[in-house]
């Protein structure tokens, strides 16, 4: 990361991303602008293939933008950003390490002493409800437990930024709801900046301070929606008229763009 502009959070201005493949060129993102203030929980929803994962990878510095400016915590992103944790849809745990070992791997890959992070790792496992599973191996865990372990791993080095790419997408509905409740509780304790990608409009509205709705590819931010639901947003939040109105607003936008159809009545 290079030059500093002195601003916190995430700042994207005029960001485009073009992929060149043997089949031709794909414009994944087109002149996208987005600001995520420090400490905000921002959810991104959009149709499949609109560039959500691309957006997350650009913020993480895992690939460069074709044009435009990407800044994280006031510095231009010019390579992998180290002060963040990432959770993907698939937890990618190491089969030969137990749960504690997988969480501590975060320290290992950063060249830090795993022993020095042991207490923090155990505390995080407690926070994600895995305190009794520290010495279990990934194949002994359910999908939800594996994802809990990967969240603990993403938080080990206490990064100010958490990037989550459809983290609950592979989970059953009940586990997903529980993970949503637990993630909110975890976030309320730490108030990290979160960029959370999901296909679920309900999940986005229930978790986020603001929801960014993306257009079909090439992706741009089509609408930014403030969610004024009080926290914590328990199960009753689904019955709150503000929840229902926000979900309807996003759904109407998808209908208008042809992302959803056949459900106009
Ligand atoms: N490495 C790559 N090489 C070539 N094309 C790519 C690459 N990564 C993404 N794309 C293309 O860019 C577009 C956006 O992909 P991306 O994965 O960001 O979408 P998405 O919104 O996350 O999709 P989904 O919701 O289905 O996961 C797609 O058309 C995809 O085929």
TrEMBL record:
Kindly state which keywords UniProt assigns to this record, in alphabetical order. ATP-binding, Nucleotide-binding, Transport
* PROSITE patterns xref list: ABC_TRANSPORTER_1, ABC_TRANSPORTER_2
Instruction: Give the Gene Ontology MF terms in alphabetical order.
Output: ATP binding; ATP hydrolysis activity
InterPro entries in the cross-refs: AAA+_ATPase, ABC_transporter-like_ATP-bd, ABC_transporter-like_CS, ABC_transporter_ATP-bind, P-loop_NTPase
A Pfam family the protein falls into: ABC_tran
Cytoplasm as UniProt keyword: no
* Ranges for domain ABC transporter: 10-241
Keyword RNA-binding attached? no
| Similarity comment: family membership | Belongs to the ABC transporter superfamily.
Q: What is this protein called?
A: ABC transporter ATP-binding protein
Species the sequence originates in: Falsiroseomonas bella
State the organism's lineage.
Bacteria, Pseudomonadati, Pseudomonadota, Alphaproteobacteria, Acetobacterales
